[in-house]
Specification:
It contains three helices and no strands.
Length: 75
């Protein structure tokens, strides 16, 4: 059996859909495990993107010229 093929097909689904599919077939231990692996991988990607965003936000603030983003006071 090609588990990589099954996992690739699962990755196109949203986490909520994978959870629903996993629950619908909870007696199939192998499928349950594959679903859990894909859910874990997707959550890791989301979490990594969040942390990268924190760093990018700080770097953008540090690299912004003074007064950047403030409206003109002369009007």
């Amino acid at each position: 059996m090609n588990y990589n093929k099954i996992m690739k097909r699962l990755t196109v689904l949203d986490i909520e859909d994978i959870v629903a599919l996993r629950e619908a077939h909870k007696n199939d231990h192998e499928f349950w495990m594959l679903c859990n692996n894909v859910i874990h991988d997707k959550n890791s990607i989301i979490r990594e993107a969040q942390m990268e965003g924190y760093i990018d936000e700080l770097l953008a603030k540090k690299n912004a010229p003074d007064g950047a983003g403030t409206p003109s006071q002369g009007k």
